[in-house]
Amino acid sequence: MPAPIPVTLLTGFLGSGKTTLLNALLKDPGMDRAAVVINEFGEIGLDHDLIETATETMVLMASGCLCCTVRGDLAETLNDLRQRREAGEIAFDRVVIETTGIADPAPIVQTLVMDGDLSYDFALDGVLVTADAATGARTLDQNFEAVQQVAMADRLILTKTDLVTPAQLAAFEQRLAALNPGAQRHRADHGRIDPSLLFGLSPTQESTRQQALAWVAAAPKKASLPPLSGLKQTTPAGTAHGLFAPAGARPSHDGRVSSQSIEIAEPISPIVFDLWLESLMNSSAADILRMKGVVHVEGMKHPFALHGVQHIFHPPVPLTHWPEGDRTTRLVVIGRDLPPGYLAESLAFLRSKPPVTEHRL
């Protein structure tokens, strides 16, 4: 069975240079076997001198990059691309979806992960978010949607860095790192960036191990709870959030988002972990912006990579090359209005109960 085609979502702050970045990618020889899905050709102002062939819904650039518009809904567009590819009409090895007018990438992630037909042929590779250094801080102050975008990003592309001082740029990067410690940041020079920095983000044996460890290493550290069989929890310093905020407190948009990490030294019961995850989704799915990590469960030789956006979880990826001596479960969660200690305490509570067994009739 052939590997699914990787799909990358490109979103970002309004006016952050997403269109400039997209135009630069369309001209880049490194995009010669990519299909870029956009809303309307007129929105990105294609350079007609660089167009090789064109139809009403599809344009082939001289670079070899294929650009097409959405027909009906996204699923219909992707299925049309797949059918043309199988018929030999077009050739592409990856898809980039430009999300004009869509602030929240979660619905597209849900389409890719939950649509049974699409999931056989397409797989989410990553979420790219453009953030301009010139006005990005103000955007984060005024629009919580921008904070959510940063929290959901796999890569953050900084634009307009030439319009700010080094000190301003450093402060903006620090703010982005606080919101999403695991997302790598790259700078685009007037939209130009090496395409290889933007792709290949989907779980693989080695990359998932490195990404998960990088997420945990980057998570803010504070104090830990008294350990329960190796369980510990960390949260960033700051004021209380959500229901535990003092009366009259008005936290900033950034203050509503926190990163919590959990480590468990030995394998966890799969029943307990499933129950915890199900309870978390039932109570706080909309507030779990991102979850990533490596989970070791009892009875399994290898751990698996866990990756979720809100209530949508990618199929678990077995990490068969994971070092045998390392059996620590590591999770990092970026959430909105989550009380400090909420995640670790809820899991500790379930783990403290007598063993749960399945009963079959």
Spans with pLDDT under 50 lasting ≥5 residues? 221-251
Give the structural class. Answer: alpha/beta
What CATH architecture label of the largest domain applies?
3-Layer(aba) Sandwich
Rg over alpha carbons: 22 Å
Q: How does the major sheet shape up? A: 9 strands, mixed
- Could you say what the CATH topology of the largest domain is called? Rossmann fold
Count of separate structural domains: 2
| Widest β-sheet, arrangement of strands | 3-4-5-2-6-1-7-8-9
Strand content: 15-25%
CATH homologous superfamily annotation of the largest domain: P-loop containing nucleotide triphosphate hydrolases
Estimate the global geometry from the Cα principal axes: globular
The total of beta strands comes to: 16
Mean pLDDT: 77
> What's the helical proportion of residues?
25-40%
The CATH class of the largest domain, by name, is: Alpha Beta
Q: Number of helical segments? A: 10
State the separation between the terminal residues, measured CA to CA: 37 Å
- SSE order: EHEEEEHEHHEHHEHEHEEHEEEEEH
Note down, in words, how this protein is organized.
By secondary structure, the protein is an alpha/beta fold. The protein has two domains: 5-197, P-loop containing nucleotide triphosphate hydrolases (Rossmann fold, 3-Layer(aba) Sandwich); 205-351, Hypothetical Protein Yjia, Chain: A,domain 2 (2-Layer Sandwich). Helix content is 30%, strand content 24%. It has a nine-stranded mixed beta sheet, sandwiched between helices. Strands 10, 11, 12, 13, 14, 15 and 16 form a seven-stranded antiparallel beta sheet that branches. A hairpin with a 3-residue loop joins strand 3 (51-54) and strand 4. Helix 5 (136-142) packs across helix 6. It is globular. Mean pLDDT is 77; it is low at 221-251.
